[in-house]
Amino acid sequence: MERVVLVTGASSGVGLALCRRLLEEDGRIHLCIACRNAQKMEATRDLILTDYPAAQVSTVEVDLGNLASVLRVARELRCRFQRLDFVYLNAGIMPNPHVNFKALWHGLLTGKVLHMLTTAEGIMTQTDRLNGDGLQEVFATNLFGHFMLVRQLESLLCGNEKPSRLIWTSSSNARESAFSLSDYQHAKGQEAYSSSKYATDLTSVVLNRKFNKQGLYSSVVCPGLVMSNMTYRILPVFLWKLLMPIMWLIRFFAKTYTLTPYNGAEAHVWLFKQKPEYLDALVKYHSCTSGLGKSYVEPRKMEVDEEIAEKFYQKLLELEKQTLEKYSDLLD
């Protein structure tokens, strides 16, 4: 039987490039693309089928930042499929990004600028807000919506003949210093994106501990710095165009400057071809590109505290319980 692959955030950027590359690897898969915007979703499906006319491509509409939408789509997927082989948890947002040019100049003077440019540490902030569920929008969209989706799809992911895979799009911007157990939604800070990605790393670690024996494995990847809709919101497009020659030069020193969505999907596709039993649950797989344009994958040990990861997971379960009580009418 063909493998069933679900990709969230598939209408552009790394998500769209990933869909194309997966079909290049195995044209027999059933690809299910999940998008927030119905019009873009259908346009994406048509675009993929234009290039891969024999492909099996279906769609589901879901807003990961809306818990009712997540529960509805989970129910739809349970009705539609008997199992899921891969779930790429790729959708994400970075609202109202701001660049701290003063910090960037200080990094230039102190020799830390390369580190800052590859991790955005100290130079990127965001202004977050509450969503309709009363949750911080970045936390809800980047992590909790995906967590709820996974929990609701356990019957399709666990106990199958072959292992099923969760592959989360994380970031090199995921930093422990931006995350706090007492403020895990990052309501009080200005680095919501970094916090949500570190929370993603923590969640993946615990999911492996909880579900490996049931045949479900979780991995995290970093696509590197990719020019996408999200990136173009940080600076004006014309400024990015002016900076592009410099960024190509930086690639000789910063291998995570993948720049194109195709290169950014390298680690996602590499994991598609690996046996999960042999992967390290405490490693993040980074898409990298050499100065000459060669793409490759670099595993890097994650700096995660497993005790904190477990405590955070328990907080997610508590929030899940509250959510299910609130939306009990959407459950089977």
UniProtKB/TrEMBL annotation:
The source's domain of life comes to Eukaryota
* Keyword Lipid metabolism appears in the UniProt entry: yes
- Molecular function (Gene Ontology), one example: estradiol 17-beta-dehydrogenase [NAD(P)+] activity
Q: E.C. number, please?
A: 1.1.1.210, 1.1.1.270, 1.1.1.62
Its pathway is:
Steroid biosynthesis; zymosterol biosynthesis; zymosterol from lanosterol: step 5/6; Steroid biosynthesis; estrogen biosynthesis
Q: Which keywords belong to this entry? A: Endoplasmic reticulum, Glycoprotein, Lipid biosynthesis, Lipid metabolism, Membrane, NAD, NADP, Oxidoreductase, Steroid biosynthesis, Transmembrane, Transmembrane helix
Please report the record's description of how this protein sits within the membrane. Single-pass membrane protein
GO cellular component terms, A-Z: endoplasmic reticulum membrane
Q: Which InterPro entries match?
A: 3KSR/17beta-HSD, NAD(P)-bd_dom_sf, SDR_fam
Question: What are the BP-aspect GO terms?
Answer: cholesterol biosynthetic process; estrogen biosynthetic process
Broad class of where this protein is predominantly found? endoplasmic reticulum
Query: Reaction catalysed by this chain?
Result: 4alpha-methyl-5alpha-cholest-7-en-3beta-ol + NADP(+) = 4alpha-methyl-5alpha-cholest-7-en-3-one + NADPH + H(+); 5alpha-androstane-3beta,17beta-diol + NADP(+) = 17beta-hydroxy-5alpha-androstan-3-one + NADPH + H(+); a 3beta-hydroxysteroid + NADP(+) = a 3-oxosteroid + NADPH + H(+); 4alpha-methyl-5alpha-cholest-8-en-3-one + NADPH + H(+) = 4alpha-methyl-5alpha-cholest-8-en-3beta-ol + NADP(+)
The protein's enzyme class? oxidoreductase
Compartments, record wording: Endoplasmic reticulum membrane
- Oligomeric and partner information: Binds to the short form of prolactin receptor.
**Family named by the database record:** Belongs to the short-chain dehydrogenases/reductases (SDR) family. ERG27 subfamily.
Q: What is this protein called?
A: 3-keto-steroid reductase/17-beta-hydroxysteroid dehydrogenase 7
Origin organism is: Calidris pygmaea (Spoon-billed sandpiper)
Q: What is the lineage of its organism?
A: Eukaryota, Metazoa, Chordata, Craniata, Vertebrata
